[in-house]
């Protein structure tokens, strides 16, 4: 850059010629000069070479910016006067400059190459760190901070590399001593990265070896491994050494010329850190928000570069100021030694670039490497939008693809067929394939799609990353699920397979259907997506997903492109049946039918569409189905009249279309059972028999009685229902058992027979229906009428202890001498109150043998007293065997035994099932011995023999010496009586070797 401008005061103009002839072209030295060589750690200039030093004459950089002279291009024309230099001096200067340029060019190329190698090494370390983060659950102490430092250092190196590349492409020579210092810094950085690579590789090796590796790592920590801390400190120093160089390139070349690109390792590490507590802050950095496109010329580096963390600004550099760009006219000048001088560069005040935050570099998303038969074009216009903001143009390309289809009448059922022509659709072609085989690029592409980072997606695809990311995660599915139109367009543009599936078997078209994403589906279909492709564990098709979701427009779209309306899933469900529900638009069903859906197809459960429509209460869909040929008599799974009974409107429609009610016997009873009087009216009007039984048992009339529906009951009687046709029971009996006695008069008036079958009174008693019992008795029914089982109303009332019914029946003439379940008096002994009523009307109680013993067994002393008062004998045996006294002893009824002996004067020696004393010795020898004493006191004889046995023998049998002694002393012992085997009592005792008993017997012999 020359300094032949008129920005010196007039008094210095005459000295310019001497300056040109006698010394180097530099502005006057300011006492407060900012030396860029010093900032770059260049060696201080010698006296001989001080004339070529590059300085900025300002007390400080801030002061220089405020006091900088006005740029040449912005000055008035009269100030830009040209003073030609002396020819001799210029010739000498030009000759000297040519030699320097030759040497500088070679050194500059080598420096650029070294920078590329170091940047690649930094990116490789970042890639290994990202892999390590994905392997471990908990990061080691200091690893997160180290990762952020690596990202910052990578970024600085990328900026320096971009600056060196820009200088090389524009043939701008850098100062040789500046190149020397940069090379020195790169060598130092290279050593640091080798050491860091060794540390990270060792950590990775530990994790890859599993438990043993982690054990070795833990053992190493016992000896104080602080390698991460040391590397953090070293890397921070390296970054600070390189930062001023990056700043110089940004300041000299301008932010909009700094086309830095970040590596895959950088992206992976930034993404991995974002999933941890070490997420990077997004503030200003070295880059500016200048251009949106990037292009690497033939001399660019081979290592792949990309973007940091999708859709975010670059790394945090709060301590590094962002310099404003140079004026456009001065950015095109050479970068020679003389151009370092600061006074030749001017800045306007308040430039709009002074506050820009940096952004990453991308290929223009809407004009990416797009192959349409012409040469590839790239946009170079600056994009000043933030990466967080998507312009409206991002979806304009997809709108252009789908607008023609969306303009059609997709909401109507009008049939329209379209053919997919994927080969006529726009196709993209990557600029290069440098990233096609790089690891983890598919995951990075998926992450970019999830983040909605269109520029990153474009850049990755443009560098050969396949849009088909495999089964694990499908990038196209991710774009569709987030309804990202631009990502969908880009992926399809670069060859994403519209029929690929993810690990769950979900295809892109199914994903679009699940999200009701119409624009995405249109694009997929135009690019060749199969609308009938069955995917997923349930093998759903896109059309079935859309139809079940009741998405009319989406379903119509798929049908237009050849979707099969008769598709059947693995479970046998058809689309037509699956889509019908209470909220299904009628247009959707009409559409499927118009496109050829078969209305009589059955699903896996045997259901047809008409059945589903009826059960969903959709009379409009029922009409549509029958109009399109649905068979109203086809069982699916049952005759359509059965479900239609619940829906009167649907019932009327299918009856109007010739539904045969004879194929659904019992339909009237079902309508009655559901209490649907409107359906009953429709069926009666259609001619259905009101007496038709359901399942051969249930009649509509009995069902209406059971459900207490008087309106239906009256309607059926008026319509000819027979009151004598039985269901599980006769209508009159149904009124009694279900306490619907209010229906009895109407039934009788309609011809109901109360006498056939017999037993309605007994049914009223059993059902505890007092009002019905009284009404029936008032109608003149016989109170002694038996049921087919032989029960009478009186005996059933006695059995149920219903005193009120007994009184009613006796008052109405019930006969206590008529046997029902048993004799009334015998059944009444269990309840003295009822017994007293029966005895009051019973002419001869003694006629019923055994009634006294029954009262004893029932443990009713009061009944015993009532029977004795009525003249029944105390010795009245039941069945000719069981006497009241022996039964009382057997049942341990002590109070009754006492009453029978003391007050009723029962004979204590009269046998029942045995002699009373023998029965007492058998039942009361160990307890209730007072009964034995009572019998002995009343004269019971233990020597009396009955059936070859007596009391003495029973005492011997019991082995009770004390009881034997009591009996012997009380009554003596008859040694002559014999048992049924002919043995005397002494012989029985001797046979048992019981000497004590023999002595007792002999001592008390009578």
From TrEMBL:
It comes from Moelleriella libera RCEF 2490. The lineage of its organism: Eukaryota, Fungi, Dikarya, Ascomycota, Pezizomycotina. Signal peptide: none annotated. Residues 356-369 have a biased composition (Polar residues). The keyword Nucleotidyltransferase does not apply. Residues 9-21 have a biased composition (Basic and acidic residues). It comes from the Eukaryota. This is Ankyrin repeat domain containing protein. Residues 1-32, 284-303, 352-384 are annotated as: Disordered. The keyword Transcription does not apply. SMART domains: ANK (SM00248). ANK repeats lie at residues 605-637, 789-821. InterPro entries: Ankyrin_rpt (IPR002110), Ankyrin_rpt-contain_sf (IPR036770). Gene3D superfamilies: Ankyrin repeat-containing domain. Keywords: ANK repeat, Repeat.
């Amino acid at each position: 850059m020359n300094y032949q401008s008129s920005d010196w005061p007039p008094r210095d103009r005459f000295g310019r010629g001497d300056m040109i002839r006698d010394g180097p072209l530099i502005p006057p030295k300011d006492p407060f000069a900012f030396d860029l060589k010093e900032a770059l750690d260049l060696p201080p200039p010698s006296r001989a070479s001080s004339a070529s030093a590059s300085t900025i004459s300002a007390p400080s950089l801030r002061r220089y910016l405020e006091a900088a002279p006005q740029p040449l291009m912005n000055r008035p024309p009269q100030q830009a006067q040209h003073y030609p230099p002396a020819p001799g001096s210029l010739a000498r200067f030009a000759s000297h400059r040519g030699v320097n340029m030759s040497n500088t060019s070679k050194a500059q190329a080598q420096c650029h190459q070294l920078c590329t190698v170091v940047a690649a090494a930094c990116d490789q370390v970042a890639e290994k760190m990202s892999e390590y983060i994905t392997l471990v659950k908990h990061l080691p102490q200091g690893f997160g901070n180290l990762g952020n430092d690596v990202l910052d250092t990578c970024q600085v190196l990328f900026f320096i590399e971009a600056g060196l590349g820009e200088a090389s492409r524009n043939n701008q020579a850098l100062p040789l001593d500046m190149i020397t210092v940069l090379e020195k810094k790169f060598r130092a950085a290279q050593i640091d990265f080798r050491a860091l690579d060794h540390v990270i590789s060792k950590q990775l090796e530990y994790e890859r070896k599993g438990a043993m590796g982690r054990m070795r790592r833990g053992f190493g920590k016992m000896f104080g491994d602080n390698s991460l801390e040391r590397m953090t400190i070293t890397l921070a120093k390296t970054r600070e050494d390189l930062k001023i160089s990056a700043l110089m390139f940004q300041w000299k070349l301008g932010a909009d010329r700094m086309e830095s690109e970040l590596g895959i390792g950088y992206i992976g590490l930034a993404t991995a850190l974002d999933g941890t507590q070490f997420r990077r802050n997004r503030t200003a950095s070295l880059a500016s928000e200048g251009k949106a496109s990037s292009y690497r010329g033939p001399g660019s580096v081979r290592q792949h570069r990309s973007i940091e963390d999708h859709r975010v600004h670059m790394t945090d550099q709060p301590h590094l100021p962002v310099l404003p760009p140079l004026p456009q006219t001065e950015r095109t000048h050479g970068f020679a030694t003389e151009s370092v001088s600061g006074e030749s560069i001017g800045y306007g005040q308040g430039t709009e670039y002074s506050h820009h935050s940096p952004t990453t570099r991308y290929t223009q998303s809407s004009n990416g490497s797009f192959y349409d038969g012409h040469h590839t074009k790239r946009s170079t216009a600056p994009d000043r939008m933030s990466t967080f903001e998507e312009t409206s143009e991002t979806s304009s390309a997809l709108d252009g693809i789908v607008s023609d289809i969306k303009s059609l009448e997709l909401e109507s059922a009008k049939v329209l067929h379209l053919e997919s022509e994927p080969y006529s659709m726009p196709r993209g072609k990557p600029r290069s394939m440098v990233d096609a085989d790089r690891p983890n690029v598919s995951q990075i592409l998926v992450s970019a799609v999830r983040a909605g980072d269109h520029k990153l997606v474009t850049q990755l695809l443009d560098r050969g990353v396949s849009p088909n990311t495999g089964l694990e995660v499908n990038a196209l599915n991710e774009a569709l699920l987030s309804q990202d139109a631009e990502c969908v367009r880009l992926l399809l543009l670069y060859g994403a397979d519209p029929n690929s599936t993810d690990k769950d078997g979900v295809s892109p078209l199914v994903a679009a259907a699940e999200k009701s994403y119409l624009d995405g589906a249109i694009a997929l279909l135009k690019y060749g997506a199969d609308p009938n492709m069955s995917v997923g564990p349930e093998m759903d098709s896109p059309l079935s997903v859309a139809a079940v979701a009741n998405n009319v427009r989406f379903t119509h779209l798929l049908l237009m492109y050849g979707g099969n309306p008769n598709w059947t899933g693995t479970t046998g469900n058809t689309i037509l049946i699956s889509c019908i529900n209470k909220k299904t638009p009628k247009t959707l069903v009409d559409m499927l039918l118009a496109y050829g859906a078969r209305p009589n197809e059955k699903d896996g459960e045997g259901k047809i569409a008409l059945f589903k429509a009826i059960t969903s209460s959709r009379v409009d869909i029922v009409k549509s189905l029958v109009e399109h040929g649905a068979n109203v008599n086809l069982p699916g799974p049952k005759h359509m009249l059965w479900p239609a009974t619940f829906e009167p409107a649907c019932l009327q429609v299918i009856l109007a279309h010739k539904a045969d009610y004879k194929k659904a016997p019992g339909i009237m009873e079902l309508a009655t059972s559901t209490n649907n009087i409107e359906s009953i009216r429709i069926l009666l009007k259609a001619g259905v028999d009101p007496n038709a039984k359901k399942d051969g048992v249930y009649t509509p009339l009995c069902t209406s009685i059971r459900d207490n529906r008087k309106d239906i009951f009256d309607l059926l009687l008026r319509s000819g229902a027979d009151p004598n046709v039985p269901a599980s029971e006769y209508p009159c009996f149904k009124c009694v058992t279900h306490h619907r006695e209010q229906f009895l008069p109407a039934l009788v008036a309609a011809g109901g027979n109360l006498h056939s079958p017999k037993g309605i009174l007994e049914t009223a008693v059993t059902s505890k229906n007092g009002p019905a019992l009284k009404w029936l008795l008032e109608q003149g029914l016989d109170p002694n009428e038996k049921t087919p089982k032989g029960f009478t109303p009186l005996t059933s009332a006695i059995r149920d202890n219903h005193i009120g019914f007994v009184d009613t029946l006796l008052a109405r003439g019930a006969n206590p001498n008529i046997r029902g379940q048993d004799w009334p008096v015998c059944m009444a002994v269990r309840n003295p109150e009822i017994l007293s009523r029966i005895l009051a009307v019973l002419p001869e109680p003694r006629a019923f043998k055994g009634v006294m013993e029954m009262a004893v067994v029932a443990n009713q002393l009061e009944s015993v007293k009532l029977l004795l008062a009525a003249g029944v004998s105390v010795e009245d045996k039941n069945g000719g065997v069981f006497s009241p006294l022996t039964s009382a002893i057997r049942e341990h009824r002590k109070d009754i035994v006492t009453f029978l002996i003391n007050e009723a004067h029962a004979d204590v020696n009269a046998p029942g099932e045995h002699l009373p004393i023998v029965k007492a010795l058998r039942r009361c020898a160990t307890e209730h011995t007072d009964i034995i004493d009572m019998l002995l006191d009343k004269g019971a004889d233990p020597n009396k023999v009955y059936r070859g046995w007596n009391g003495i023998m029973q005492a011997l049998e019991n082995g009770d010496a004390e009881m034997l002694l009591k009996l012997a002393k009380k009554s003596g012992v008859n040694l002559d009586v014999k048992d049924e085997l002919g043995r005397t009592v002494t012989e029985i005792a001797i046979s048992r070797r019981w000497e004590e008993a023999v002595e007792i017997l002999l001592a008390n012999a009578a």
